Every structure is written in C-alpha cells, then in structure tokens.
C-alpha cells in the first residue's frame, strides 16, 4: 500500500475533472459539497468511482466527517492501510 | 438568523417549481376518491395514475365491511405500543396470516412500511456488522442504516457483480454482512435480478433482506414477490413489505424462518416506541389479503395494464424505463419542463407523480405513473392520449414516433 494522501488527492482531482460540470480550479483543499455544488447523491456516486479506482470501500458513515478532497484522500489511505 | 435559514435553497427550489402560477406538486389534494381509479381533484374528475394502489383494494367492499365490523367490536385505536398495551388478538392473527401467506415461520407487523425497514435494518445490523445497500435504495433503507450502528457500504444499482466485488473487499473481516435489495424499485419500476443476488449471498455466506414493498401482490405465482417469481425464496432471509400498496391499507411487515426474529421485537426501536396498528386497519388488511389470494386474475390484469401503458407511452414517443412493470416512469431532461408537463397533465385530467432529483436515479426528473388492475383499457388509452397531446404541445415527440 504505497499511495500517499497527496497521490490519492491528485487522483481524486483527476477523476473529478473528467466531469465537465466540475469547476476547473479545484485542488486538494476544495470543499466537496460547497465548491463542487454536489448534492448528497452526487457525493455518494462520486465516492463510488473513487472506490473502484482504488479498490477500497468507504463506509457511508465516514463521509459525514469529510469536507475537502484532502479529507477524502486521507480517509481512503487510512482504510487502505487497515486492510 | 432563523432556524429555517438552512432551507433557503429548498425554498428557492420550491419557488422555482411554483413560478408562473404552477401548482405545488407536493401538496396536491385529492378531495375524495370516486373509485380506485378516479378521484376528485380541483373539482374535476381526474384519472388516478399515481397512487400505488396496484390491485385497487383501497376500495375493496370486503375490506371496508371488515373495517366497519372491527371498529364496532374493538374500537378505533389501541393507544399503545406493541410491547406495552398495544398487542391485541388481532395483531397476532394478522401476523399468523401474513406468515402463512409467505409460507414462513415468523412475522412481525409494524405500523408503517417505512418503520418496517427502519426497524429491521437498524436492529439486524449491529456495530460490528456490515450493511450492503443497493445505490438506488428507498429512503427508509438509508434511514434504517443511519439509525443503526453498522458500517454501510453501497453497491451499484441492480449489479450483483459489483456487490460481489465489495463483499470480496470484506473477506476476512468479522461481523455479519446483511445485503439489502428491493423487489421493484419505486422510481423506475425496474425489477431486481434476485436469483443472481441470491447466488452472491450464498457464495459470501452473507444474509439477504428483500424489500418487496412494490412487488408484493404483483410478482410471483401467488404474489409473494420477486423472490417467488425467481424461485429463490429460500435464500431470502428476511422479506420486508408494506400493506399500503397492493393491500390498499397501511402498515408494514417482516417475515422470516429465523427464530431470532422474535428477539427483534425487544430491540427494534421503530417497533417498540410507537402505537400499534388500529383494529379497523388490521381487519381491512386481512380481508384484502384474502381477496388478493382469492383473485389471482387481479395480478394478470395488472400486468396486462402495465404492458398497455408502457407500450402506449413509448409509441407516443416518450422515453420510459426498459421494463413494463406497475411503475412506469416517463424520463425527461429538465426540471422546469417536467414541472410544466406535470401541471398540464393535471389540467387535462390525469394525476401522476412528479419525481425530482436527487430522489431519482441519474439526476433526471420523472413523471412517475403507477398502474392498477382496476384501470380499464379505455382509461389507459385516455391517459396515453393526454400524455401524447402534452408531448406534442411541448415538442417532445421523438423522431421515430413523430413520423409514425
């Protein structure tokens, strides 16, 4: 498990930018709900894509504490380290 | 700052929906039903194509008479919860009847279908367990997952392979894995591939709960749902459902062969801390259940009607889900167009449900219809004609249909 938070964060930004509706100027400190204008369903669907890219499952209750892309990256890295 | 200020965005969305004098689609009043298929709305006789009353049994004569008789002998309420003073002989009778209908050993009855999901899911999956939910699950399933303490993992809608992958990631973790699927999904009317999910469940040694709310009385040779239709009832550990669709009353249930179900009565908060079903509802539900069992032709007519509506709407150039089922949704692209379409349908005498994202899959607004066994072919054709008229007014005909 060699991914760092920075690696995962970059991958998340790259995944998000594949969606033309996402603002172009996002980075690790962008807030997922506020800056991306995602509703609850859009957040869950986007997390599912990240889960598949990184072969990890993020339990929904963990999402409650996640505000920024870096938060999500840190959560994914900790889940990967736990397995 | 107002306590409501967090809903400013919601208020703006509602204002946008009702701009230009449109109705509030979430506050339509049916003054009263004239039959199972026609209601009085805004003083006009309106075709009801959005009530989930699949078999028309909300207006069953037998159920009405049973309710009146029960109210006379038992009164109108229990004034208590099931575990305090709220269990009467009628509750036990209803549980036995539902268990017998499903050929299961145990049944628990809840006060609503919403509470049945809330109560079962929150109590079955504990702190060290995993809940695996279909991404398009009903709100009651999501809410049940939040009321409990299990880890919640979402898999792609109706995708057994995706579930298999997510279960594989949990290999070796302790704790029970409870998979939750629905028989028919309420927004698009699509049917679960239950046999494939049952196979994944067996491989993984997981547990399977199926919410057959929209498929009870609709699918399967005896109306026991998709699990019966697919021949995999033995793999479904828990069937949850509601009386408020095919049986036309209100209330929820869970049936199971697991003896542990009785323990859930003592730890499921949505079961314990609310008033039990009133006598007249129980009596009406049992009468409707009898009628459903006695009249399998209702199911056949329902599916014929579903195919007629689905084919008619598609022939009119509208886009629907792929399957003809008692829920047929017309898929539109823009919310304001859907709102105007829905208003126009009601002007012309057809009531359907306006379903807006994020309550719908894929961010599309839907004009959701539900079909009944009691709709006549003429009523269905009339509804299709009105849909086609509005689609023409809005320039929504697809090329293939427009030239036909």
TrEMBL record, chain A:
Any single Pfam family the record assigns to this protein: PP-binding
Residue ranges constituting the Carrier domain according to the UniProt record: 3-80
Superkingdom of the source species: Bacteria
PROSITE patterns: CARRIER
InterPro entries linked to this entry: ACP-like_sf (IPR036736), PP-bd_ACP (IPR009081)
Listed name of the protein: Acyl carrier protein
Organism: Gluconacetobacter johannae
Organismal lineage: Bacteria, Pseudomonadati, Pseudomonadota, Alphaproteobacteria, Acetobacterales
TrEMBL record, chain B:
Pfam families linked to this entry: Aminotran_1_2 (PF00155)
Domain Aminotransferase class I/classII large: 46-385
Entry keyword set: Aminotransferase, Pyridoxal phosphate, Transferase
Family matches, as InterPro entries: Aminotrans_II_pyridoxalP_BS, Aminotransferase_I/II_large, AON_synthase_class-II, PyrdxlP-dep_Trfase, PyrdxlP-dep_Trfase_major, PyrdxlP-dep_Trfase_small
Cofactors demanded by this protein: pyridoxal 5'-phosphate
GO molecular function, one term: pyridoxal phosphate binding
Family: Belongs to the class-II pyridoxal-phosphate-dependent aminotransferase family.
UniProt xrefs under NCBIfam families: SerpalmtaseBetaP
UniProt name for this protein: Aminotransferase class I/II-fold pyridoxal phosphate-dependent enzyme
Organism encoding this protein: Gluconacetobacter johannae
């Amino acid at each position: 498990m060699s991914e760092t938070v920075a690696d995962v964060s970059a991958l998340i930004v790259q995944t998000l930018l594949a969606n033309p509706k996402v603002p172009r100027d996002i980075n690790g400190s962008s807030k997922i709900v506020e800056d991306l204008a995602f509703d609850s369903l859009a957040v869950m669907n986007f997390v599912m894509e990240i889960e598949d890219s990184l072969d990890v499952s993020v339990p929904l209750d963990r999402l409650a504490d996640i505000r920024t892309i870096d938060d999500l990256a840190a959560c994914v890295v900790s889940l990967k380290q736990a397995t | 700052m107002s306590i409501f200020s967090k809903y400013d965005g919601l208020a703006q969305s509602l204002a946008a929906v009702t701009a230009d004098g449109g109705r509030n689609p979430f506050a339509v009043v049916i003054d009263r039903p004239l039959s199972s298929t026609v209601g009085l709305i805004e003083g006009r006789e309106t075709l009801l194509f959005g009530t989930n009353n699949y078999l028309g049994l909300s207006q069953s004569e037998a159920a009405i008479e049973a309710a009146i008789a029960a109210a006379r002998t038992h009164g109108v309420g229990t004034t208590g919860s099931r575990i305090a003073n709220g269990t009467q002989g009628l509750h036990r009778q209803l549980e036995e009847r539902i268990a017998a209908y499903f050929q299961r050993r145990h049944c628990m009855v809840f006060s609503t279908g919403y509470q049945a999901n809330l109560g079962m899911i929150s109590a079955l999956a504990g702190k060290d367990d995993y809940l695996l939910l279909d991404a398009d699950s009903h709100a009651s399933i999501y809410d049940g997952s939040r009321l409990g303490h299990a880890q919640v993992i979402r898999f792609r809608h109706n995708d057994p392979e995706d579930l298999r992958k997510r279960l594989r990631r949990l290999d070796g973790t302790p704790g029970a894995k409870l998979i939750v699927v629905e028989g028919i999904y309420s927004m698009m009317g699509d049917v679960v591939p239950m046999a494939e999910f049952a196979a994944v469940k067996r491989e993984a040694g997981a547990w399977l709960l199926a919410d057959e709310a929209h498929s009870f009385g609709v699918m399967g040779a005896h109306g026991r749902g998709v699990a019966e239709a697919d021949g995999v009832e033995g793999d479904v550990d828990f069937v949850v459902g509601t009386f408020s669709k095919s049986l036309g009353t209100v209330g929820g249930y869970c049936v199971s062969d697991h003896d542990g179900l009785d323990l859930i009565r003592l730890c499921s908060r949505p079961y314990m801390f609310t008033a039990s079903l009133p006598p007249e509802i129980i009596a009406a539900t049992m009468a409707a259940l009898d009628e459903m069992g006695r009249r399998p032709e209702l199911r056949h007519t329902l599916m014929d009607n579903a195919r007629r509506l689905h084919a008619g709407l598609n022939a009119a150039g509208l886009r629907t889900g792929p399957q003809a089922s008692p829920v047929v949704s017309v898929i539109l692209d823009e919310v304001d167009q859907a709102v105007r379409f829905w208003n126009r349908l009601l002007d012309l005498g057809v009531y359907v449900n306006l379903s807006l994202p994020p309550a719908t899959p894929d961010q599309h607004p839907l004009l959701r219809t539900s079909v009944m066994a009691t709709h006549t072919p003429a009523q269905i054709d009339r509804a299709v004609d009105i849909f086609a008229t509005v689609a023409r007014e809005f320039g929504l005909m697809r090329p293939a249909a427009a030239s036909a």
